[in-house]
């Protein structure tokens, strides 16, 4: 790890000042933020948050962006009521905090959300996107869950492919070239495993000069040179969903 005292550089110093267009609802045992498009649709996207949780304005902005592109977007609390990480927390306690929030153990919550989308929203084609912690969760779901159509894993820590790299659904992987959390050698190894074993469509894309968190952080306000890559990452994400949903 590049900095053991700070193992995840998901800074929100450039956090959106953003309220959101959707509403908060209760879905069985968890809360969720949902935003629906202006016209009816049977397509939906589950948005899986990063360590800063389901209420982070940056993530809600992405959900709203998906809704303006014609999708029912829902961002559930996959920590199921446990506190999200705060930038003011002691990073020395991060690994202990993370042990109680396993990105590979969200199946109960996903089942509840799928039922809500099908029964309450009329969704028939459902995909998933996730950021950082949520990107790892997407990897888990693309390997295990038969009910989703496609996924986008955005700088997800690569932990799900040690024993199995045979994806069930088309999956798009977004990584930053300068990401200290997901070094390029891990990305190269992932590509090798997918090439050997994967039978569905996939793409692994590395964005030049970008650091961890670039797609759903408003970095264009601080580093104008990053703006084209932020926009490209978001456009690529939408295009992938449009192709498979």
Blueprint of the fold:
Elements: E1 23-27, E2 30-35, E3 43-48, H1 57-68, E4 72-76, H2 94-99, H3 107-121, E5 125-131, H4 133-144, E6 150-154, E7 171-176, H5 184-197, E8 202-207, H6 227-244
Parallel strand pairs: 3-4, 3-5, 5-6, 6-7, 7-8
Antiparallel strand pairs: 1-2, 2-4
Task: Give a quick precis of the structure.
The protein has helices spanning about 55-70, 95-100, 105-120, 135-145, 185-195, 225-245, and strands spanning about 25, 30-35, 45-50, 70-75, 125-130, 150-155, 170-175, 200-205. It is of the alpha/beta class. The protein has a single domain (about 25-245), classed as 3-Layer(aba) Sandwich (Rossmann fold).
Main pleated-sheet profile? 8 strands, mixed
Helix content: 25-40%
User: And the CATH topology?
Assistant: Rossmann fold
- Fourth-tier CATH superfamily name: Alpha/Beta hydrolase fold, catalytic domain
> What share of the residues does DSSP label as strand, in percent?
15-25%
Number of helices: 6
Structural class: alpha/beta
Strand arrangement within the widest β-sheet reads 1-2-4-3-5-6-7-8
Alpha carbon gap, first and last residue: 36 Å
CATH class: Alpha Beta
Radius of gyration: 17 Å
Give an account of the 3D structure:
With 245 residues, the protein is α/β, with parallel strands linked by helices. It has a single domain, classed as Rossmann fold (3-Layer(aba) Sandwich), CATH 3.40.50. The protein has six helices and eight strands. Strands 1-2-4-3-5-6-7-8 form an eight-stranded mixed β-sheet, sandwiched between helices. A hairpin with a 2-residue loop joins strand 1 and strand 2. It starts with 22 loop residues before the first strand and ends with a helix. The N terminus is likely disordered.
